[in-house]
Amino acid sequence: MNSITRSIDTVLFDWDGTLFDSASTGLAAFQNTFRELGVNFTLEFYEAYYSPNWYTMYEALNLPRDRWKIADDLWLQHYGEQPGRLVEGGRETILELRRRGYRLGIVTSGSRPRVTREIQALRLESIFEVLVTNENTVNKKPHPEGLERAMHLLNATSQSCSYVGDAPEDIQMGRNAQVLTVAVPSAYPSSSRLAAANPDISLNSISDLLLHLEGLGS
Asked: Could you tell me the CATH number of the domain that includes residue 193?
């Protein structure tokens, strides 16, 4: 086992992009949402400004704050029009981590009803011990509130936790929470900026996490 992962017994994951293959569906939902709102939303803008804290995109688009809730509701409506799936190797990885004794959880910017529905559809309810969503935090990524809440619910220390994400904000949040940070690329444009965030561990795919977390006591 890698020496920097020896103390880890809890693995917290971002959801969208990291475990759940939502990139193309999410982009289509944004395009349809902003089309309905009469806002000019281009692929170039998306690639430059996408963030898992999409309120930063709303600000960059000069969307009035009183329309943010409308945009959120429209996005959820359009996003739900297509079935979702885990990223390649995602299911095998989390099932094997559980078998190896790790405690698993989700810390995401996504909404609780949507993420809960996806987890249930994929029959993963028994796998994750904690789910922290957008509704559970006041401060959004890269603020550490979401991770701190998850650790509190699990009665876990920062030294025993790692956070796996596909965006620079995920890595920054993990660093702010003083947990081990693990970066995994996804189809979201923010993944191109992952290396600059200086994660503790960089993966080529989610399956590579098993090379670093061999099992408790290994």
From this structure: 3.40.50.1000
- How many structural domains is the chain composed of? 2
Domain that includes residue 118, residue range: 3-21+86-212
Q: Is the dihedral of CA 176, 56, 133, 118 positive or negative?
A: negative
Secondary structure tally for the chain: helices H, strands E: 9, 6
Residue (of 78, 129, 139, 134) closest to 109 by Cα position: 134
Distance CA 108, CA 102 (A): 19
Same-domain status, 33 and 93: no
Tens of each residue's pLDDT in the chain, 218 residues: 567 899 999 999 999 999 999 888 889 999 999 999 999 999 999 999 988 888 999 999 999 999 999 999 999 899 877 677 999 999 999 999 999 999 999 999 999 999 999 999 999 999 999 999 999 999 999 999 999 999 999 999 999 999 999 999 999 999 999 999 999 999 899 898 999 999 999 999 999 999 999 988 65
Same domain flag for 60 and 158: no
Q: Which residues pair with 162 in a beta bridge?
A: 11, 180
Alpha carbon 179 to chain centroid distance? Answer: 15
